[in-house]
Design goal:
There is one protein chain. By secondary structure, the protein is α/β, with parallel strands linked by helices. It has a single domain (about 15-250), classed as BirA Bifunctional Protein, domain 2 (2-Layer Sandwich). About 25% of the residues lie in helices and about 25% in strands. The chain is built from five helices and twelve strands. Strand 1, helix 1 and strand 2 form a beta-alpha-beta unit. Helix 3 (about 115-130) packs across helix 5. The longest helix has 17 residues, at about 115-130. It is globular. The protein starts with 14 loop residues before the first strand and ends in a 5-residue tail after the last strand. About 45% of the residues are buried.
Length: about 260
């Protein structure tokens, strides 16, 4: 009997996978969906997959975060409609918001070398290649994660793995409001800046065309499939409606810190 989930068996030489474009999605909604899909992946009911989306203004605190790296006061955050969440990913403080492509990977690392460090490097490689598709030469910085153009960080990465299945992922700055990064010390790194694809493309030509978020999501989908050896077919988000998303504190304890009285 069909479960309605995409098949985990591929008739080709590559492993099957799925990519879902979700558009604007709330942080808790996305966390609950990741939690449910992690359980489905651990049970072998779904293939490796990526959720591609953007968030409303959100600040997230990783397991290695420091309170002094959150700079904005509550009045500033409230005026912008921003929320603050404690998460279970690695790393320090990050910002998500409109104009930023967020990718959450639900992968079984038993099929990818059983190595979280390798997973981080493969995410970086995928993003570096995707940026190259738009004429931007990105790379890595020793001792730091993410994708960089010169001394500026264009993409941040923070992940979680449970029973070898991953959650959380990356945030690639396409054309967000870079002023919002002034609310934090991004990733706890004080001596390097933050850039976006838009700021880099327009640096030499103010009239340069900036790709849409959907165009960058498509490039990321192709490059993620290439690097991870997945037949990463676009999926219908309706397939995800089967996931049980009611967990009140998903992914090991994602919780809202601000605003405290929000539903």
């Amino acid at each position: 009997m069909s479960t309605g989930w995409p098949s985990t068996i591929s008739g080709t030489g590559t492993r099957p996978g799925r990519s879902y474009w979700l558009g604007r999605t709330g942080y808790l909604e996305a966390a609950r969906l990741q939690h449910a899909l992690m359980r489905e992946r651990q049970a072998g009911n779904v293939p490796d997959l990526f959720l591609l989306l953007e968030h409303p203004p959100v600040i997230t605190l990783g397991r290695g975060s420091h309170a002094e790296n959150l700079l904005a006061d509550e009045a500033t955050l409230a005026a912008a409609g921003a929320s603050v969440w404690e998460t279970t990913r690695g790393g320090d403080v990050t910002y998500h918001g409109p104009g930023q492509l967020v990718g959450y990977g639900i992968l079984d690392l038993r099929e990818h070398g059983r190595d979280v460090g390798r997973y981080l490097r493969d995410l970086e490689e995928s993003l570096i290649r995707a940026l190259g598709d738009f004429g931007l030469v990105a790379g890595r910085r020793e001792g730091l994660t993410g994708a960089w153009v010169g001394d500026e960080k264009v993409a941040a990465i923070g992940v979680r793995a449970e029973r070898w299945v991953t959650a959380h992922g990356f945030a690639l700055n396409v054309d967000p409001d870079l002023a919002h990064f002034g609310w934090i010390v991004p990733c706890g790194i004080r001596d390097h800046g933050v850039a976006s694809m838009a700021s880099l493309l327009r640096a030499g030509n103010p009239d340069a065309r900036v790709p849409t978020l959907e165009e960058v999501a498509e490039a990321a989908r192709r490059r993620l499939g290439e690097v991870f050896g997945l037949e990463l077919a676009p999926g219908d988000p309706a397939e995800l409606s089967q996931a049980e998303v009611s967990n009140p504190a998903p992914l090991g304890g994602v919780t809202r810190l601000f605003p405290r009285d929000a539903a």
